[in-house]
Amino acid sequence: MSKAVVLLSGGMDSATTLAIAKRGGFDCLALSFSYGQRHALELEAAKRVAKQFGARHETATIDLRAMGGSALTADIPVPKDRPLNEMGTDIPVTYVPARNTIFLSLALGWAEVTEARDIFLGVNALDYSGYPDCRPEYIAAFEQMANLGTKAGVEGKGFSVHTPLIRMTKKAIVAKGIELGVDFGMTVSCYDPAPGPLACGRCDACLLRLKAFEELGRKDPAAYR
Fold it and tell me: Which residues lie below 8 Å from residue 29, measured CB to CB, with a gap of 6+?
């Protein structure tokens, strides 16, 4: 089977992306990051999801708290109870500067070393919180850079960056995950979880997730406060 590096945060989008890559016949190498995030609980979720799908799993450690600038890596409150129609209209303080660029660069390095030519990322440009590094034009630019700046790319063994969820609603993502057997009870989406495995139910990530399950007429299996 062809190898693929799959960025796996432990949330519902990345879990669904891993399931899609696995269904596509790829030998999946799941890559997570311990980057000083306040919601480090997601790393345990990533381990569970990788195990469910039989993927080799590695966690890279990089401390983005040194840069700060985000509610996820600095002492900045996570926004709560924002109206859904306001999400995506601005870039919120949960945006981590250059995060996807850093993550994709490390995924690219691992892909080159392991001779994987495909990278999967669960970004979404519809029901999302306004992050600039979740847009199709950003992904296209990164893929071009990947093929210009690597030995494999220069030798004609180019890379493809796959974003199968990028034009899907959260409702459609949950439906796809259920179809592919994702156990969403294993996943963690919350930006500001309580001590223990409890999601806040009030941050943007929780609200978008709850809305998706509600629209499907299903109960979110995540544990909330």
Answer: 3, 4, 5, 6, 55, 56, 58, 110, 114, 116
* Per-residue pLDDT tens over the stretch 74-100: 999 999 999 988 887 788 999 999 999
Residue 221 falls within a domain, yes or no? no
Work out how many domains the chain is built from and give that number.
1
Residue 124 falls inside a structural domain? yes
Using the structure block, give the residue that is written with the tokens 């963690």.
188
Give pLDDT tens digits for 138-167: 999 999 999 999 999 999 999 999 999 999
Q: What is the pTM of this model?
A: 0.96
At 28, which CATH number?
A: 3.40.50.620
Q: Which domain, by its residues, includes 69?
A: 3-216
Cα–Cα distance for residue pair 145/30, rounded to 1 Å: 22
Pairing of strands 27-34, 56-61: parallel
- Distance of alpha carbon 178 from alpha carbon 186, whole angstroms: 13
Residue with tokens 């250059």: 98
Strands (E) in 117-199, as ranges, are 118-120, 160-162
- Residue 222 in any domain: the answer is no
DSSP-derived secondary structure letter, 34: E
What one-character DSSP code corresponds to residue 184? G
Instruction: Answer whether residue 224 is part of any domain.
Output: no
Model confidence over 31-41: pLDDT tens digits?
999 999 998 89
Strands 27-34 and 3-7: parallel
Residues 140 and 148: their CA atoms lie apart, in Å, by 13
